[in-house]
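Thread amino acids onto this structure.
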């Protein structure tokens, strides 16, 4: 790319005196990087030029363009920030310094965090994220430069070795693309997502590219026809409008395909691959254009969104409607003003130069209030894991907008509940919440809020405090880490003795459910970095650790992240590795049904290879020939494992339906069911399930115990099932 392209783009919106500073920055960078090459073999100067061009497309100010041209001269060329300040002033120097510091931040992959034991690596990752968000709060332009820098690095990723390509793509998918989305910079977001997807899932990426290419001419012909019809109709009604085809990007197509696959649909069923965008001059014209569209074609029910009246938190505004084109083909149409379109493409960046003085945008601070709020919240959060959780749940996902009884708008992460809303309004309102109304109707506290809901919290003046059930992730009472942290703080202030007792009871119950020996408690405490059992119980008691996390930690400890060798694929046992050997026939023992997360051991049979048992299996403990026991371990797998559970309950109509529906929701298969009527008028239900891991089983058992009239749900072995199943009045289904 030549410098003249950058100049042409900058001259479209910058005055001559500002262009002169950009020109000086280019000459300075050219001299500093002279003779330097990138790993791709091209002159190094090409990189800052591309970064600057991306920012010029966003129409950022001259200081941003100059800083983007200079952003690597300090680190790569040894030029002091003080010298940059002398040459270009304090504003440019501060932007270069901030970008250089952000460039030094490293993000660990989840596997790396797990391999290092989690604590130290996660703390470093959280600290780096804090630094980025604080830098954003001080000057958003630093992050604009960093996003443009990451985009060009992704565009030239082929020059790096495969392992490094994957690490950088993972960072981009987890940190930079969501950040671009939250800032509303669609133009950067979709490119970062597509490039990350290309390197993380190359087969899926190229498969979708092939599908899109094969049908491109057919779609283009269809869209051209739609555009012509709409333009004629708008002209007939005297409405000035620009009608464009809207391409669907590769990663968004992938997301649609994943969603549709669960509904039994395929690529050809994705109707919003066919879409057009209508750009008009005013808000009134938007609604006029919508009326014209709906007069032409019948709108689909529940497929209309008014993001003009209810803008997204990143500033996005538009009307979205899906119509049946000529009664046969679903067609998505977006209608917005030209200014809304600019904000949709460039997000917060579209407001930056106005904030600098040309035409002050009074809503600018409001548009990034979520960022200021997060910087405040991070001072309250107690540790690295809580901070990372806060960013990923409260910031890097889609939002819903709901109303207070006074008509104020509150934005919350998608999936939030009335309790999240209560804690967002005020901590004491959350603590005293006893119920909620949504749109005037009483709802449960784990009801998921939707855009436009009016929420009223019912509270009590009597000292009550939150329920411990609110912290159970399985029950879904709170979504935001902000609410969860406030609840934890409340319980943390309660008596330590009570917390220890409750924690011990909760842990013992969970271990009995999963059929884990109670003597393993000290080992579990050490897994969570607690040397003192009482401290471990206390953390469980006030909600700092959940029993679901205990199950997941057990599973992670037993399952190795990477294995150099695995046995030949066959049934569920393909996930077993016999240490020091390969290609051995293995099978899971039918007496104890081990699943990933259990501690296991192998038994060398005379003619059936290796049988894999749980280490606490009765047959293993009482085995006479101990030399036939050998070490085995879990490997990576997508296999399912048979496990038996017992549900103790009082009888009622619809109980079995509720249990099986819940199991199906967890995407777990039931291979056998038997029922026993007990003398105390209770029922024992025995289910053989096909589960993927101990963590999944733990989550399911907790959810089953929440069903009305269920007394307990726990894992059992064949022996327990046989004893409880004597059987004249037993019904069995297979």
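Threaded sequence (734 positions):
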């Amino acid at each position: 790319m030549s410098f003249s392209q950058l100049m042409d783009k900058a001259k479209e919106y910058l005055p001559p005196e500002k262009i002169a500073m950009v020109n000086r920055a280019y000459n300075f960078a050219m001299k500093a990087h002279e003779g330097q090459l990138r790993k791709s073999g091209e002159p190094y100067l090409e990189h800052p030029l591309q970064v600057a061009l991306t920012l010029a497309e966003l129409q950022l100010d001259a200081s941003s363009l100059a800083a983007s041209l200079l952003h690597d001269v300090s680190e790569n060329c040894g030029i002091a920030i003080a010298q940059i300040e002398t040459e270009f002033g304090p504003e440019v120097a501060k932007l270069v310094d901030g970008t250089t510091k952000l460039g030094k931040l490293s993000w660990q992959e989840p596997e790396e965090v797990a391999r290092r034991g989690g604590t130290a690596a996660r703390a470093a990752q959280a600290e780096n994220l804090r630094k980025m968000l604080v830098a954003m709060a001080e000057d958003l332009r630093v992050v604009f430069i960093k996003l443009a820098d990451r985009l060009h690095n992704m565009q030239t990723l082929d020059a790096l070795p495969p392992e490094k390509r994957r690490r950088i793509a993972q960072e981009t998918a987890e940190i930079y693309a969501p950040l671009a989305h939250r800032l509303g910079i669609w133009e950067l977001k979709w490119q970062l997502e597509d490039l990350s997807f290309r390197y993380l899932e190359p087969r899926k990426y190229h498969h979708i590219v092939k599908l899109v290419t094969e049908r491109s001419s057919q779609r283009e012909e269809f869209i051209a026809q739609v555009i012509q019809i709409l333009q004629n109709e708008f002209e007939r009604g005297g409405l000035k409008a620009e009608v464009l085809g809207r391409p669907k990007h590769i990663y968004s197509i992938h997301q649609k395909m994943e969603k549709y696959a669960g509904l039994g649909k395929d690529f050809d069923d994705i109707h919003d691959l066919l879409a057009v965008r209508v750009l008009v001059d005013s808000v009134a014209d938007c609604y006029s254009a919508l009326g014209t569209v709906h007069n032409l074609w019948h709108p689909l029910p529940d497929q209309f969104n008014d993001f003009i009246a209810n803008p997204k938190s990143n500033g996005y505004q538009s009307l979205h409607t899906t119509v049946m084109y000529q009664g046969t083909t679903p067609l998505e149409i977006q209608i917005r003003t030209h200014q809304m379109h600019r904000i949709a493409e460039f997000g917060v960046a579209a407001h930056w130069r106005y904030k600098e003085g040309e035409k002050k945008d009074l809503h600018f601070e409001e548009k990034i209030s979520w960022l200021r709020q997060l910087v405040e919240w991070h001072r309250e959060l107690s540790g690295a894991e809580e901070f990372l959780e806060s960013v990923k749940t409260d910031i890097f996902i889609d939002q819903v907008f709901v109303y207070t009884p006074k008509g104020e708008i509150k934005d919350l992460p998608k999936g939030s509940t009335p309790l999240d809303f209560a804690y967002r309004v005020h901590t004491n309102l959350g603590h005293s919440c006893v119920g909620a109304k949504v749109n005037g109707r009483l709802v449960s506290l784990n009801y998921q809020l939707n855009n436009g809901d009016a929420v009223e919290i019912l509270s009590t003046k009597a000292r009550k405090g939150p329920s411990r059930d609110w912290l159970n992730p399985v029950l879904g009472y709170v979504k935001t880490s902000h609410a969860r942290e406030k609840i934890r703080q409340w319980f943390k202030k309660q008596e330590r003795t009570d917390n220890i007792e409750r924690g011990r009871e909760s842990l013992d119950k969970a271990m009995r459910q999963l059929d884990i020996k109670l003597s393993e408690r000290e080992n579990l405490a050490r897994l969570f970095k607690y040397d003192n059992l009482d401290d471990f119980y206390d953390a469980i008691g006030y909600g700092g650790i959940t029993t679901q996390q205990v199950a997941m930690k057990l599973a992670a400890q037993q399952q190795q992240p990477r294995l150099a060798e695995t046995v030949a694929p066959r049934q569920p046992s393909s996930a077993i590795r016999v240490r020091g050997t390969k290609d051995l026939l293995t099978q899971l023992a039918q007496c104890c049904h081990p699943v990933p997360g259990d501690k296991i051991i192998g038994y060398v049979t005379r003619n059936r290879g290796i049988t894999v048992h749980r280490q606490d299996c009765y047959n293993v403990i009482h085995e006479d020939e101990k030399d036939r026991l050998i070490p085995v371990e879990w490997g990576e797998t997508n296999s399912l494992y048979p496990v038996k559970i017992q549900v103790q309950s009082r009888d009622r109509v619809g109980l079995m339906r509720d249990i099986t529906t819940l199991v199906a929701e967890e995407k777990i298969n039931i291979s056998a069911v038997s029922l026993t009527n007990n003398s105390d008028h209770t029922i024992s239900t025995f289910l053989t399930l096909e589960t993927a891991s101990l963590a999944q089983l733990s989550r399911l058992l907790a959810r089953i115990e929440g069903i009305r009239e269920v007394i307990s749900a726990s894992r059992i072995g064949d022996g327990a099932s046989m004893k409880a199943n004597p059987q004249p009045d037993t019904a069995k289904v297979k």
